[in-house]
Design a protein that fits this description.
By secondary structure, the protein is mainly alpha-helical. It has a domain of 84 residues. 63% of the residues lie in helices and 0% in strands. The chain is elongated, with a radius of gyration of 21 Å. The chain starts with a helix and ends with a helix.
Length: 145
């Protein structure tokens, strides 16, 4: 028996409730446990990334308020760094929301169903990108908009 099973990493919903795309093998308990652990790790990683980015932003904002006679190049550099840190923090927040949503779906037994069309997302896609909540076709449509 895999170690993941002993740690209580089996889903609340039966494995048979997780859909697969046509031609894919059904989910195994081990694969489900791996996805669950990966989602939990993603959530923890994104929470840490947000903390680090916010701490960096706080430092940059504090530096930005020092000295009225600062060199314009320094001010521009500080503004660029601040914008970059804000972008990284926002990206981490969006990824955290995706991971949390996927984990909620996982725990409720609705994992693997496209939120747009209701068809299976596909086991192969979810194993590569566990945070996916849209099938490939719906994601492509969303990106074209």
């Amino acid at each position: 028996m895999p170690a993941a099973k002993h740690r209580g990493a089996t889903p609340k919903a039966p494995v048979s409730t997780f859909p697969v795309a046509e031609g894919e093998d059904p989910w195994t308990a081990e694969e489900i446990a791996e996805i669950r652990e990966e989602l939990k790790a993603d959530i923890a990683r994104m929470e840490r990334a947000i903390e680090v980015a916010e701490a960096g932003l706080a430092d940059l904002f504090e530096e930005g308020s020092e000295g009225a006679g600062r060199d314009p190049a320094d001010v521009g550099s500080s503004n660029f760094e601040r914008d970059q840190e804000m972008s990284l923090a926002q990206n981490s927040r969006e990824m955290l929301e995706q991971a949390q949503q996927a984990y909620r779906l996982f725990e409720s037994g609705n994992y693997g169903v496209c939120e747009a069309c209701g068809q299976p997302i596909g086991k192969d896609r979810l194993q590569v990108f566990p945070r996916a909540t849209l099938c490939v076709a719906c994601k492509q449509r969303e990106e074209r908009r």
